Amino acid sequence: AQSVSQHNHHVILSEAASLELGCNYSYGGTVNLFWYVQYPGQHLQLLLKYFSGDPLVKGIKGFEAEFIKSKFSFNLRKPSVQWSDTAEYFCAVNALISSNTGKLIFGQGTTLQVKP
Amino acid sequence: DSGVTQTPKHLITATGQRVTLRCSPRSGDLSVYWYQQSLDQGLQFLIQYYNGEERAKGNILERFSAQQFPDLHSELNLSSLELGDSALYFCASSPRTGPTDTQYFGPGTRLTVL
């Protein structure tokens, strides 16, 4: 069965620090990869996604992620975090088993706390 | 605001009861997905409907059922509720179906089973 691991459960950073959140998945075939963010009291929002092409993808709010196929990884990065980035971050995978489904498998989530 | 609405926001009920959660997708979206978020299991895919038909099934218990109506809204029915069913239930919608479709999430329904 496919699974997604997010190694950092809780990260605390000061403003302007750089961020990298790890995400690894277990599936040997073609995958589509997503990062979602959930700000306090809000719904899940898409930060960025990777389907194919350039493995370095840029998303909203200055976030980017790099797909490394050989490492089964899709780590999220941001050069300089802000207090407003405090949120929970979820990595998700859609394994291309069936072209007709949108089933997402989520990691456990990483809570990011940015201190002003 | 994602455009996906869910009602009710909060639901408190007792063990053994049955509840119905409702989801209205974004205008024009044909797929509806249900996810359960709990502390121990994280965010888990339950089921997907596309244009009224079941398209994919995840770890959905037999006590749970869902349907998508002709107007494309969806309902998730949870019966014989147990304490462990307490969780946040999210609905998401997407324009079509398929692994490249972006899913837009609603605010969730928080279910508490006492």
Structural class of chain A: mainly beta
Mean pLDDT of chain A: 91
Sheet with most strands of chain B: 7 strands, mixed
**What is the approximate shape of chain A?**
globular
Number of strands of chain B: 11
Provide a brief overview of the structure.
The complex is a heterodimer of chains A (116) and B (114). By secondary structure, chain A is an all-beta fold.
Description of the structure:
The complex is a heterodimer of chains A (116) and B (114). Chain A has 116 residues and is mainly beta. Helices cover 0% and strands 52% of the residues of chain A. In chain A, the strands form 3 sheets. In chain A, strands 2, 5, 6, 10, 11 and 12 form a 6-stranded mixed beta sheet that branches. In chain A, a hairpin with a 5-residue loop joins strand 5 and strand 6. Chain A is globular. The termini of chain A are far apart. The model of chain A has no long low-confidence stretch (mean pLDDT 91). Chain B is mainly beta and 114 residues long. Chain B contains no helices and 11 strands. In chain B, strands 2, 4, 5, 6, 9, 10 and 11 form a 7-stranded mixed beta sheet that branches. In chain B, 40% of the residues are buried. The chains are: A mainly beta (116), B mainly beta (114). At the A-B interface, strand 6, strand 10 and strand 11 of A face strand 4, strand 5, strand 9 and strand 10 of B.
